[in-house]
Write a structure and sequence with these properties.
5-stranded parallel beta sheet; single chain; 5 strands
Amino acid sequence: MKKKLTIALVAHDNRKADLVEWAAFNSDELAKHHIVCTGTTGTLVKEAFEKKGVVADIVCMNSGPLGGDAEIAALVVQHKINLAIFLIDDLNPQPHEADIQMLLRQCRVHNVPIACNRYSADLMITSTLWDNEEYEPSSPKYIAFDRQAMELKAGK
């Protein structure tokens, strides 16, 4: 598996403080990788890293409502994102809900791990699989499921 990852960081307005705090806590690890963020989130993460004296490769896309989520989804489709951290505000409606769902769907379809809360982000960023040279994630298998054949085989 790749040693230097491309990690997407996205957060809705009411979750930005949470993501910035998480990114600052993990800044030493994140600085080893290429970071792609939506606009405002990226600016805030850069500022937090600068305050800590951490130099990192951070690229900002557009803000989410202006297409940043869609830009990151396109990178997922191009196999240019290895991990996504997307802290979603589930308590308030988002005007760009379609783009949010598209990003989540593309991560699932293209087998990109996506964390939607800090706990899962912590588990993913610290996984030893990232450093395992022999590990390669398997591709998703989209094959028809034949329930009737399975039931016949099981003797039902």
